[in-house]
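PROTEIN DESIGN WORKSHEET
SECTION A - STRUCTURE
LENGTH: 422
TOKENS:
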């Protein structure tokens, strides 16, 4: 075996070792770097010893034992996991075939031989390694944080190619027997992988579109909530203005009495009372935004003959942004009101009971409402097949998860109960 072939074999060994290590998401301290450098040196030494005492074909047959298995063990020790280091080694082996293909392409164009193949592979090693480290390695490392199922799917193609390469070339030499099934195996794997990839992309796009629609709906809810709060605040300011102008109203009424115009005075009093009543915001607690929302839903429940009982002790400063709190509270009350309205359509009574308070910088809320007994749950979350419904629950869950809060939904004895703390 010539020196160029030995140098090429050493270069592909270093190529695979470095690439495997960089495909793993390892925090490289100087101790880990030293351990990896020692492991790589030991592996290269074993390769050299086998190459010295045996021929090239034997060295390639023993390559998994002296290189891939020790490398996988070393990466498992450094990363403290098993599956991903194995996938990283298999993926690096797959990338090594890029060198081989470039060399075979050069041979087919320039009618070269084994010497040209070794030379082209050796020349392509460093540029290809730098390209893969810069462009591909970060993406591969990011996939290491996926679920186990995703990792298994990603590692399937490199695993199949690894087995195919060794079984058909180094061990059984099946390709030379011109077995059609063996020759078409990797094209079959590529086709199957493409179809699976297309299905996964389609499913991911469907989920993305659903999330986008949900986000748009939530944005509309936030906009609507902000608009309603703005209107209620304007009404509150108008009520304050009426109270401020009380002296002028009294002077006008006094003038009507002095001029013996009682009917005009009565009409004026009724007009002012109606305006003040429409603009009144009931004070349930110290928190202004909470009062505005409670007042709005209290009036809506009153119009539908639904009992609405509120017990709230909430300060101005709460551990959740006002916009998120308004969306969460509005959705919880909207769902409760909708359930009671459905009962009212059937001639059944309905009620809503709200309890909210803040303690030790924790905000607690419970909304209990009358409901029917056919509510379906999935993983503790109420679900529905009615189009346009269920988004409020997803909004509540999203906000609670954003703040790391605790929440639950349950239905028993004709009551639907939502509880949360954040």
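SECTION B - SEQUENCE
RESIDUE ASSIGNMENT:
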């Amino acid at each position: 075996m010539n020196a160029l072939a030995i140098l090429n074999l050493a270069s592909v060994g270093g190529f695979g070792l470095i690439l495997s290590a960089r495909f793993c998401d390892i925090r490289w301290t100087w101790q880990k770097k030293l351990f990896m450098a020692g492991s790589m040196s030991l592996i290269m030494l074993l390769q050299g010893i086998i190459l010295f005492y045996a021929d090239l074909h034997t060295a390639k047959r023993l390559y998994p034992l002296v290189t891939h298995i020790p490398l996988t063990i070393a990466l498992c020790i450094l990363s403290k996991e098993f599956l991903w280091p194995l996938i990283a080694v298999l993926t690096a082996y797959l990338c090594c075939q890029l060198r081989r293909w470039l060399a075979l392409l050069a041979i087919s164009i320039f009618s070269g031989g084994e010497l040209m193949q070794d030379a082209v592979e050796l020349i392509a090693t460093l540029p290809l390694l730098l390209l893969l480290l810069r462009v591909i390695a970060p993406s591969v490392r990011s996939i290491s944080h996926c679920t186990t199922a995703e990792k298994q799917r990603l590692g399937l193609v490199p695993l199949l190619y690894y087995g195919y390469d060794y079984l058909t070339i180094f061990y059984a030499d099946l390709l030379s027997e011109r077995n059609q099934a063996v020759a078409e195996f990797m094209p079959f794997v590529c086709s199957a992988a493409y179809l699976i990839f297309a299905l996964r992309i389609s499913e991911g796009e469907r989920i993305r579109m659903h999330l986008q629609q949900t986000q748009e709906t939530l944005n509309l809810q936030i906009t609507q909530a902000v608009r309603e709060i703005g209107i209620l605040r304007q009404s509150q300011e108008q009520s304050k203005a009426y109270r401020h102008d009380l002296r002028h109203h009294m002077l006008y009424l006094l003038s009507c009495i002095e001029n013996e115009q009682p009917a005009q005075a009565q009409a004026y009093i009724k007009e002012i009372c109606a305006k003040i009543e429409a603009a009144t915001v009931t004070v349930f607690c110290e928190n202004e935004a909470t009062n505005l929302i409670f007042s709005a839903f209290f009036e809506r429940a009153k119009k539908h003959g639904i009992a609405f009982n509120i017990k709230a002790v909430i300060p101005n400063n709460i551990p959740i942004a006002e916009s998120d709190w308004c969306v969460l509270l509005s959705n919880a009350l909207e769902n409760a009101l909708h359930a009671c309205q459905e009962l009212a359509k059937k001639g059944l009574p309905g009620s809503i009971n709200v309890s909210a308070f803040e303690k030790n910088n924790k905000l607690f809320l419970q909304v209990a409402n009358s409901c029917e007994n056919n509510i379906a749950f999935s993983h503790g979350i109420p679900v529905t097949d009615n189009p346009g419904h269920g988004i409020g629950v997803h909004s509540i869950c999203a906000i609670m998860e954003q703040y790391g809060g605790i929440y639950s939904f349950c239905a028993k004895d004709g009551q639907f109960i939502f509880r949360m703390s954040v």
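SECTION C - NOTES
The first helix runs from residue 3 to 23.
The domain at 217-244+281-421 is CATH 3.30.565.10 (Heat Shock Protein 90).
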